[in-house]
Design a protein that fits this description.
alpha+beta, seven-stranded antiparallel β-sheet, 23 strands
Length: 474
C-alpha cells in the first residue's frame, strides 16, 4: 500500500523526515524516496528500491547530502516516488497513496486534451503519481487540481505536495479512506499517515484532516484551504490488519480495538455455545496477537505463543525473486516452541483469512510439531471482494480469495449470486462454506468474526467505515 511523512520547520527537518518515513516501513516493500527543499539550493531528491534492503540502510548514506527546512518522503508498494514536477503551478514534489483503477482511460483523456507524453516505466505503464500530477496541472491552482483529480479517479487518492516556497499541501482522500494527521512542536509542523512516528519525534497531536480536506502547512501554521466533506468511508482494515499498534485513527487506538475485537469474538461464541475446549489461545504473529489476547482474556483461557516469527535476518522487506526460495523463507520464519505445542489443543486467531495458503502451512507446521488440535478464528468476516480502493492486497482476482473459490466449488456461478448468505455463518450456505474451508485448511474448527462484531470493536459510527471487501457495497 504505502505511507508518507512530511515536515516544515524553522530547523533542518532531514532527520525528522528520515525517521518519520522509516516508521511507515510496515506499509510497503517496493520503493521509497525523500525530497527536501532549501531556500538557497532548492530541491534535493532520492528514490531507492527497498525490495531486499530496509529503508534505513538504503537512505542512511544519503543523509549527509540532504538539507532543508521542508521535506516529504514515502514508502510505496507501487511506483517510484516522490516525484519532482515542473509546471505552470511551479516546481513541486508530490507523493501519493491510493489506487487508480481507470488509469488508462485518464491517460487517453490527457492525450486528447493536448497532453503529449508521459514517462513510461519498464512495464510500459505510467507512474500513477505522475498521472496525478498531470491531472492536477490541468487546473489553475493546487486546490482545484487536487479536487479534480480526486473526482475523476476511480479508486482513492491521498497525497502530499511540497511547493517551491517550502509549504506542504496535504489532501485526504475525498471520503477519507486513509488518515492524515498533523503534529506540532515548538519549531514547526509535520504531516503523517500514522500518528506514532511523530510522537517518537517529539511532536504533539494537533489536527486530523476530515474526508476530502486540503490543508496548507508551514513552520508557523496550518490552514484549511478546502473544507472537509460530510461523507467518510475509512478503511476498516486499518484497525484489523495494517495499522501499526501505537497509532490512532478517528480517536480509536489500533491495539485497543484489536483487544476489543478479540474479546467480542469470544463473548459471542460463548453466547452461542461454540467456544472450544483448548489448552491455549494464540495469535498468528504479528497482527493476530492482540486479537488473540482479547479472545483469551474474555474466554478465560491461557494465552501462549507456540511459535515465533524469526525476523532479524528475514524482515518483511526481504522478498526473494525465486518463488521456491520465498516459500522456504516463509517456512523458516516460523520457529516453534515445542513445549507449548506437543499434545496441546490450540486455538489461533489471525487478523483475516485471504487466500489461505499460509494458514494451511501453519496448520501443517503445528501438527508436525505434535499439536493435538488446531482451531482457527478470523478477526474479520469472510473476505468476498478484492479491494478496489487501496492496494494492500496482492489479490488480482476474486478467485484468489479462498471464500470465493470455495463458493465456486460448491455451487458454481449460482453460488456467486448468494454471497451475502455465504458470509453469514448462521445460514445453511454459510455453515457449508465454513465446513469446506475448515476441511481444506485442516482446522478442527473455524470461526469468523461477524461484521457487526467487527464494527462494534472499531467503535465509531459504522456508516463512516468502508466494508466493501466483505459486503461489496460502496
Amino acid at each position: 500500500m504505502g505511507g508518507f511523512f512530511g515536515a516544515a520547520s524553522h530547523d533542518d527537518v532531514v532527520l525528522d523526515v528520515f525517521f518519520g518515513v522509516d516508521y511507515h516501513s510496515h506499509l510497503g516493500t517496493r520503493r521509497a524516496g525523500m525530497i527536501f527543499f532549501d531556500t538557497e539550493t532548492g530541491f534535493q531528491r532520492e528514490i531507492h528500491s527497498i525490495e531486499n534492503t530496509p529503508f534505513r540502510t538504503k537512505f542512511e548514506d544519503d543523509l549527509q547530502s540532504f538539507h532543508g527546512c521542508s521535506g516529504i518522503g514515502c514508502i510505496s508498494d507501487t511506483d517510484p516516488q516522490p516525484l519532482l514536477v515542473r509546471s505552470h503551478l511551479g516546481t513541486f514534489g508530490i507523493t501519493t497513496v491510493g489506487i487508480i483503477n481507470n488509469a488508462e482511460q485518464l491517460i487517453e483523456e490527457c492525450f486528447s486534451a493536448g497532453g503529449k507524453q508521459f514517462m513510461a516505466m519498464s512495464s510500459g505503464k505510467v507512474n500513477n503519481t505522475e498521472l496525478v500530477a498531470a491531472l492536477i496541472n490541468q487546473k489553475d491552482s493546487f486546490v482545484e487540481g487536487i479536487k479534480f483529480a480526486q473526482e475523476v479517479i476511480d479508486g482513492s487518492l491521498t497525497l502530499l505536495i511540497m511547493t517551491d516556497e517550502g509549504d506542504i499541501i496535504a489532501a485526504r482522500d475525498k471520503v477519507g479512506r486513509l488518515p492524515v494527521l498533523i503534529g506540532k512542536n515548538e519549531k514547526g509542523h509535520c504531516i503523517s499517515f500514522e500518528s506514532f512516528p511523530y510522537h517518537k519525534l517529539d511532536y504533539d497531536d494537533e489536527y486530523e484532516l476530515g474526508p476530502g480536506e486540503i490543508v496548507r502547512v508551514n513552520a508557523d501554521s496550518y490552514e484549511t484551504i478546502s473544507p472537509a466533506g460530510n461523507d467518510m468511508k475509512i478503511c476498516a482494515f486499518l484497525w484489523t490488519y495494517y495499522g501499526y499498534p501505537n497509532s490512532n485513527y478517528e480517536g480509536q487506538n489500533v491495539e485497543v480495538v484489536r483487544y476489543r475485537n478479540g474479546a467480542i469474538m469470544a463473548r459471542d461464541e460463548a453466547k452461542a455455545g461454540t467456544l472450544p475446549d483448548v489448552d491455549y489461545v494464540a495469535g498468528v504473529p504479528d497482527s493476530g496477537v492482540p486479537h488473540g489476547i482479547g479472545y483469551a482474556t474474555e474466554s478465560k483461557t491461557p494465552f501462549a505463543r507456540p511459535f515465533i516469527k524469526y525476523t532479524p535476518t528475514w524482515a518483511r522487506s526481504f522478498m526473494p525473486s525465486n518463488q521456491e526460495v520465498r516459500n522456504r523463507v516463509a517456512k523458516m520464519k516460523q520457529v516453534p516452541v515445542p513445549e507449548l505445542i506437543a499434545d496441546k489443543k490450540l486455538l489461533l486467531v489471525d487478523d483475516s483469512i485471504v487466500r489461505g495458503t499460509q494458514l494451511r502451512e501453519t496448520v501443517d507446521f503445528l501438527y508436525g510439531a505434535g499439536a493435538k488440535e488446531v482451531h482457527m478464528r478470523s478477526a474479520c468476516p469472510p473476505i468476498m471482494f478484492s479491494c478496489k480502493y487501496l492496494s494492500f492486497s496482492s489479490s488480482k482476482s476474486e478467485m484468489d480469495l479462498i471464500s470465493r473459490r470455495v463458493i465456486q466449488e460448491l455451487e458454481g456461478d449460482e453460488g456467486q449470486k448468494h454471497l451475502e448468505e455465504y458470509a453469514d455463518s448462521s445460514t445453511e450456505r454459510g455453515k457449508c462454506m465454513l465446513r469446506t474451508i475448515c476441511e481444506k485448511l485442516g482446522f478442527d474448527s473455524l470461526g469468523y468474526q461477524s461484521l457487526d462484531g467487527m464494527l462494534e470493536g472499531i467503535g465509531i459510527d459504522p456508516s463512516k467505515i468502508c466494508t466493501y471487501c466483505w459486503t461489496g457495497r460502496e
